[in-house]
Amino acid sequence: MYEPETLKPPSLLLTLSEAPRALAERASLCGQLYWLRRMPQGDGHPVMIIPGFVGDDSGNQPLIDYLEALGYKATGWNLGRNLGHGLLDPEILIDRVNSLFNATGQPVSLVGHSLGGVYAREIAKLWSHEVRQVITLGSPFGEGRSAASHATKLYRAISPHRGDDDDAEWAAAPPVPTTSVYSRYDGIINWKVSLQADGHAETENIEIYGSHTGMTVNPVVWYLLADRLAQPLGNWRPFERKGFGHFIYPTPVWQATDSLEMTGQAVG
After folding, report:
1. What is the pTM of this model?
2. How confident is residue 156, by pLDDT bands cut at 50, 70 and 90?
3. Which of 47, 66, 226, 247 is the most exposed place for a label (fewest CB within 10 A)?
4. What's the distance, CA 202 to chain centroid?
5. What does the pLDDT look like over 66-113, one tens digit per residue?
6. Can you say whether the dihedral through the CA atoms of 133, 184, 27, 30 is positive or negative?
7. d(CA 224, CA 151)
8. For residue 233, how far is the Cα from the chain centroid?
């Protein structure tokens, strides 16, 4: 699909424009709420939103409120600021998933932004019987990600193990329905490390127009999340770019990639 050793971080122009683009995405929500609130109502199953690196639940509160309004039992991860997985015992997140499952009697959908999506994928591998699906937003789980991110130096400075991770292990798809959302205009990570290759029949990659930091306040992402979460349990289907969706969601650049075609990846 790509040569990991050739990956580089996004251009400086994309990186410097991250903040204003994220603000514009959040501002655009106001004009889209009328339509977003008319998305299919949820079935009450629990949804946990996991923040990205150095993020916390407060930044995801608008999304949490939106999913609650649709009828889901939406919640943050309730673990403060995300300072890297080297400072987090994975059993704590497993306990959170287990508590939500026991409280509702339904498996949990995990939505993770950036590094939070990596957590979501790994928890689904360890505790798949209580996870309904995983949706990642700009998550760097692919091989070569350390060289492909502008956040690597900060992550290594904070992480107890200097951010040295097993690329191959993170790249493997969880054994549950898995959606990876990415943007070629991501200014923090190279979008190629957010592509799920060598997946299974219930994995998909969906491209959006948007920034990295603004993904959780991007109305296009909210529409996508509402669509993915509304699927009946056990009846997962790949996302379809219908009607105006052909303009809102770009044709995936990876659809002609042999490695993805061979694994039955959805092209939307």
Report:
1. 0.90
2. low
3. 247
4. 15
5. 999 999 999 999 999 988 766 678 899 999 999 999 999 999 999 999
6. negative
7. 26
8. 19
Chain CA centroid to CA 149, Å: 16
Side-chain-side CA neighbours of residue 242 (13 Å): 6
Cβ-based neighbours of 255, under 8 Å, separated by 6 or more: 261, 267
Are 8 and 191 within 8 A, CB to CB? no
- DSSP letter string, the chain: ---GGG--PPPHHHHHTHHHHHHHHHHHHHHHHHHHTTSPPP-S-EEEEE--TT--GGGGHHHHHHHHHHT-EEE---S-S---GGGS-HHHHHHHHHHHHHHHSSPEEEEEETHHHHHHHHHHHHSGGGEEEEEEES---STTGGGGBTTHHHHHHHSTTTT---HHHHHSPPSS-EEEEE-TT-SSB-GGGG---S--TTEEEEE-SS-STTGGG-HHHHHHHHHHHTSPTT--------TTHHHHSPPPTTTT-HHHHTTT-B--
- Please, are residues 187 and 17 in contact by the beta-carbon 8 Å criterion? yes
What CATH number does the domain located at 4-261 have? 3.40.50.1820
**Torsional sign, CA 97, 99, 104, 105:** positive
Give the residue among 61, 58, 89 at the shortest CA–CA distance from 74: 61
Say how far residue 46 (Cα) sits from the centre of its chain: 16
pLDDT value, residue 87: 63
Report how far residue 124's alpha carbon sits from residue 116's, in angstroms, rounded to the nearest whole number.
12
Decide: residue 115, CB within 10 A, 0-12 exposed, 13-18 middle, 19+ buried: buried
